[in-house]
Write a structure and sequence with these properties.
Rossmann fold
Amino acid sequence: MDFFDRQWSTYRAVVDHDLMQHRALTAALGQAVGAWLAARPAGSPLARMVDLGCGDLAVMAPLLRGLPLGSYLGVDLSAPVLPRAAAALGPVPYPCQWRQQDLLAWAEADPGPEPVDLLHSAFAIHHLSDDDKARFLRLSRRQLAPQGLFLWADVFRPPGEDRQSYVARYVGRIRSSWGVLTPELQQPVIDDLSQFDFPPDRDAIRHTAEACGWRWQWLWQGDHRAEALALLTPA
C-alpha cells in the first residue's frame, strides 16, 4: 500500500465511523441546498456547482446524484482522488469535470463567462493561512453569481481560543474518543492537524467575510466546538 492509500484509508475510517459528524453535517447541507433551489425564480437556468476540495465524494455522492444541476466541477489538490470521486458519483444527468488545482488558485483565476451558482467547500479552507483565507474570500466573491450560494463546511475555533489550545483540545479528543482507530491510525491525523490545520476564529472569520462582501449565517455546529457549516451569500 503506497503513501496515498495509507493516508486515504485513515481518512475513510474517520468518515465511516462518523468521528467528525459528517452525517449530521451532510444532512444540514442537503437541507440548505434544497431550500436554496426551491427559492430560485421559476425559469432560472440549472445551477452550476463548484466543489472545492471534493475528495472522494463518498459522503456527498448521494446528495449530488439527486440535485438538478446544470454542471458540476470537482476540484482537489490530490490528483489520485479524482478518479475515485468520479466513480463514487457515477452517471448523472449533468456534465461533470474534474480538476487538480489548489482552491486559492481557483479563486485567483479570471471568472469564466458563466458565474458559479453554487459553491461548496468541505474541510479544505482551514489549511490556508489567515491572510490567504481573506484573499480566498475576497476573490471567490467575484466567481459567484449575484444570487449564488457558498456553503462552507470546516473546522473553526471558538471565539478567543488560540490555535495552540485548539490543537491540544482536538488531539485530546482523538486520543480519548476515537478508540475505533488504533494509535497507529490516530497518529497521522494528529500529525496532520498539528502541522497543517489553521482553523479560523469563528467571530474573526465572519467579520473578514463581511468585509469581503459576504453575508454570513451559521447553519449547523457540531458537538465538539470545531466542525461547523456556514452559509455565505453575496452582500
